[in-house]
Design a protein that fits this description.
This protein has 682 residues and is of the alpha+beta class. It has 3 domains: 107 residues, Sandwich (Immunoglobulin-like); 248 residues, alpha-galactosidase from lactobacil brevis (Beta-galactosidase, Chain A, domain 5); 295 residues, Alpha-Beta Barrel (TIM Barrel). It contains 16 helices and 37 strands. The strands form 7 sheets. Strands 3, 4, 5, 6, 9, 10, 12, 13, 17 and 18 form a 10-stranded antiparallel β-sheet that branches. It has a 7-stranded parallel β-sheet with strand order 27-25-21-20-19-29-28, covered by helices on one side. β5 and β6 form a beta hairpin. It starts with 9 loop residues before the first helix and ends with a strand.
Length: 682
């Protein structure tokens, strides 16, 4: 497994990426491959094209489904999506297995989710080993590949380390099995649930598991040319009760052809933007920066109605108007310890009139509000713990007598779910909240597993996860314009199902080390086209440029730093110039590295607008002060005007020069950062 590369060759020649001119778009060959696969899976014979698996009463699904009744249905959802449904019914036990798939007609992408329902009046036999994805890939025989037969591109998750979101490569060798999974029940706690499998035959497939729970995946090579891929919920071994229905994780496949896996990543980014990011009011999430008092008020534990207004005024007096005001943990009764959660009401001592006076004050000044919640974790002595212990999941089943222990609000309990939806809905309405921020700071897996019966293993997790998704969906249904920040100790809940509802305003809790944040941007940009970063009191170009994102949070005490009048407005103006480019195609221009002697650089290219940006960073111990970076996605014969944000005037180069010879960059500071924008000449 490789996680970094030496950089010496870059300084002379750059990286010899394959050429690509113009906008990234799926090719007819890729679209045909996806159509072929969808036709075989949903319209052909399931016996000839199995793509999921399970055992039922000890028998494999591959055998059972051949004998069960099968019905097919398809319907057009919209101009770009077709829904396919396969319904398999076991006449003997009443089990119905439903596969609901979506075929995209504008991208080479197919997705599906499995549903299992007991339609009888008695318990089913045991369902086990449910793999929502179970496929076999074969490499063409007689081909002598120039590189690994199966090369898996994937990424670290967000475990709060310097290497958060770092890209990895794993060669899948014959007679080996590679397992990659979630950790502790939070889906991107250890690894991202997104993969790009590159075949030596000039093609590949991107796959993703959408499940805000404990998923796992297995990549198993045989002796010859085959690779079996399985993915799903890690533990399933349960009977279904009469009338009961459960679901599997979401699975997505996206097919690509050619020699360039990074081009495939940009097709993925475009699909993600087109079909996954929630758009309140029909608009993409905004580029925005926040103000907050949390450095001075220890998050919100020392916040009051009065001092919140004072801090807002301090920002405005310095000409620094935030787009939104960040109210984080501690606004509820907690005795100065934000960790004490479970009483979801404003502290009446500090906010005697609730939070509405603060949000009204913000709104009058054209500033929106964001409010932090952590509804799943419940601490002893809180309102929920005292009034509804029957709604809690404990680490020992049925044991509510360990006062030192966090409990988990059981979102699979209909009564708990109903109370939570109605209570938070009321708070959002009465407090006038514009952005709902949900955090999650404990691992739920132990709670789920402790509350499963022997013949119901995995059910508590399924009920919890489906309840969580339904909770989010209902809040957003009731508040269509509400923005949703999805956080879990940073970016530990970045799976696709979660990202379809919210966006990561806090992509990692490893947020202050500049080199680490550079690495996070490098890695997360391969998969997620919208994220945030945190700014502190450092206002130098290297620090601020390293932490640019769609959303930036200013974690500083605005009252005590006069120099904010000088540097911060300039840095924010620069950020507002650069941030819109982050929606473009993403091209790494150097290998990934956290080394202090290296450079790191990337490019965002908006092909449809014929412009883009290059960001380059020279680390503190790098002896090289210049490099040539070969750009991507440009028109060969076009002329581009380049603007270095640190140098007066402009220069011009052709797309061919920028891609073949490379963009020359000089960074004299050590460490230092350069930003260069470009635009195609008419």
């Amino acid at each position: 497994m490789k996680t970094g590369f030496p950089l010496a060759a870059l300084m002379v020649l750059g990286i010899a990426w394959p050429r690509l001119a113009g906008a990234v778009a799926p090719t007819p060959v890729e679209m045909a491959e996806a159509r072929r696969w969808a036709a075989a899976a949903f319209e052909g014979s399931p016996a000839a094209m199995p793509f999921f698996s399970f055992t039922y009463d000890g028998k494999p699904s591959a055998e059972l489904l051949k004998t069960w009744d099968l019905k097919r249905a398809s319907r057009q959802l919209d101009a770009q999506r077709v829904e396919h449904t396969l319904t398999h019914a076991d006449a003997t036990t009443g089990l119905v297995v439903r596969c609901v798939g979506i075929e995209y007609r504008d991208f080479p992408t197919v997705e599906w989710t499995l549903y299992f329902k007991n339609t009888s009046d008695r318990d089913t036999p045991i369902l086990a080993g449910i793999e929502a994805l179970d496929i076999q890939l074969e490499r063409e025989t007689g081909v002598s590949p120039p590189r690994a037969e199966f090369l898996l591109h994937h990424n670290t998750g967000s475990p709060t380390t310097p290497g958060d979101y770092g890209p990895r490569e794993t060669t899948l060798n014959p007679e080996t099995e590679t397992r990659i999974s979630a950790a502790g029940g939070r889906p991107t706690n250890s690894d991202l649930s997104y993969f790009n499998l590159e075949l030596a035959t000039g093609e590949g497939v991107i796959l993703s598991v959408g499940w805000p729970g404990q998923w796992d995946s297995h990549f198993s090579r045989d002796k010859e040319n085959g690779l079996r891929i399985r993915a799903g919920q890690e533990l399933t071994h349960f009977k279904l009760l009469p009338g009961e229905e459960v679901r599997s994780p979401l699975v997505v496949l996206q097919f690509w052809k050619g020699e360039d896996w990074l081009r495939a990543q940009n097709v993925w980014r475009r699909w993600f933007i087109a079909h996954n990011i929630r758009r309140p009011g029909g608009q993409l999430p905004p580029i925005q920066w926040c103000g907050t008092s949390e450095t001075a008020t220890t998050l919100m534990t020392g916040a009051t109605e009065e001092n919140q207004k004072q801090f807002v005024d301090a920002y405005l007096e310095r000409g620094l108007k935030p787009d939104f005001w960040w109210m984080d943990a501690g606004w509820y009764p907690c005795n100065g310890n934000w960790w004490q959660t479970g009483t979801w009401e404003p502290d009446k001592t500090r906010f005697p009139n609730g939070l509405r006076p603060v949000t009204d004050y913000l709104r009058a000044k054209g500033i929106r509000s964001i409010l932090w919640f952590e509804p799943e974790r419940v601490t002893p002595g809180s309102w929920l713990a005292e009034n509804h212990p029957e709604w809690m999941l404990a680490l020992e089943k049925g044991n509510q007598n360990r006062p030192e222990e966090n409990k988990l609000l059981n979102l699979g309990d209909p009564a708990a779910w109903t109370w939570l939806v109605n209570h938070i809905d009321k708070m959002i309405t009465e407090s006038g909240i514009d952005i709902y921020r949900q955090d999650f700071n404990i691992d739920p897996l132990g709670y789920w597993r402790a509350n499963d019966a022997e013949d119901r293993q995995g059910i508590t997790e399924i009920r919890y996860v489906t309840g969580l998704l339904a909770y989010w969906d209902e809040l957003l249904r009731r508040h269509p314009s509400l923005l949703f920040d999805n956080c879990a100790s940073g970016g530990r809940r970045d799976d696709l199902e979660s990202m379809r509802r919210g966006v990561p305003y806090c992509k990692s809790d490893y947020a202050t080390d500049v080199v680490g944040v550079q690495g996070e941007t490098y890695g997360i940009s391969l998969w997620l086209p919208y994220f945030a970063a945190t700014w502190d009191t450092r206002e130098d170009a290297y620090s601020c440029r390293s932490r640019m994102a769609h959303v930036v949070g200013a974690c500083l005490d605005i009252r005590n730093h006069d120099h904010f009048r000088k540097e911060l407005p300039r840095r924010l103006e620069e950020w507002r110039t650069v941030a819109p480019y982050f929606w473009g195609d993403y091209w790494p221009l150097t290998p990934y590295s956290l080394g202090s002697k290296d450079w790191i650089a990337w490019q965002f290219n908006r092909a449809e607008l014929a412009d883009g940006v290059v960001q380059a960073f020279r680390r503190a111990e790098s002896v090289q002060e210049s490099a040539r970076l070969r750009l991507r996605g440009l028109e060969q014969d076009a002329v581009y005007t380049l603007t270095n944000l640190d140098v007066a005037g402009t220069t011009e180069m052709t797309g061919r020069e920028l891609q073949d010879t490379g963009l020359p960059i000089v960074i004299k500071d050590q460490p230092g950062a350069t930003i260069i924008t470009y635009r195609k000449k008419p």
